[in-house]
Amino acid sequence: MKAVVFDLDDTLFDHTTSATNAIQAWVPALGATYSADLIPQWFEIERRNFDGWLAGRLTHQGQRRGRLLEFLPLIGRPVPGTDDELDEVFAGYLEFYRQSWAAFPDAEPALEVARSNGWRIGVLTNGSTPQQNAKLAAIGLAGFIDVVSTSESLGFSKPAVEAYHLTCEALGVEPADTLMIGDNFELDVVAARAAGLTAHHLDRAAGVTLAQLVRSTG
């Protein structure tokens, strides 16, 4: 191996916990009652609207507005009538979300192992370039990363083969010399292997850590 490419959300960056903490704080701030069943509903709404952005049906801000159109009625709050008002409401969620940004404890050790191997290090993420770079900076990992590839900057999102090949090209390596690691089996393993990369699935529920996956290929 000459390089390793990591997924970001729920691989290096703990998106699920950050978003969960944000919902727990944001819903009461809106004057509504929080309940645990709102969490899976929020993530399903997030997935559906985010997929709409990746498919080109929505703008990035539009998918945020779409989330509110579905979520606010669930908590008994009125839906604002203008885009500006929707954006103001979503800004409240974003503030709580940012306050909870954190790396997984195994993220920095894995990056240190990869660096000690002499590997180039990339991130490939289906997300907004400014936000994903801001996450890496806020959680203290930006200095380890040589290349950050986002669906927004590439013009392709996982599982398109171009997303993986363009990331390898930016790292200056061939796909055959590149390891991909991520929590999403279809996007980070199946599709990466189809693009010619070696790929490992990060299954934290089974006790697997990022550093173990990097060492196993070093």
TrEMBL record:
Keyword terms of this UniProt record: Hydrolase, Magnesium
MF terms (GO), sorted A to Z: hydrolase activity
Stored Gene3D superfamilies: 1.20.120.1600, HAD superfamily/HAD-like (3.40.50.1000)
Pfam families: Hydrolase
Cofactor: Mg(2+)
Protein name: HAD family hydrolase
Keyword Transcription: no
Taxonomic superkingdom: Bacteria
SUPFAM superfamilies on file: HAD-like
InterPro entries: HAD-like_hydrolase (IPR051400), HAD-like_sf (IPR036412), HAD-SF_hydro_IA (IPR006439), HAD_sf (IPR023214)
Keyword Magnesium: yes
Organism name: Kribbella alba
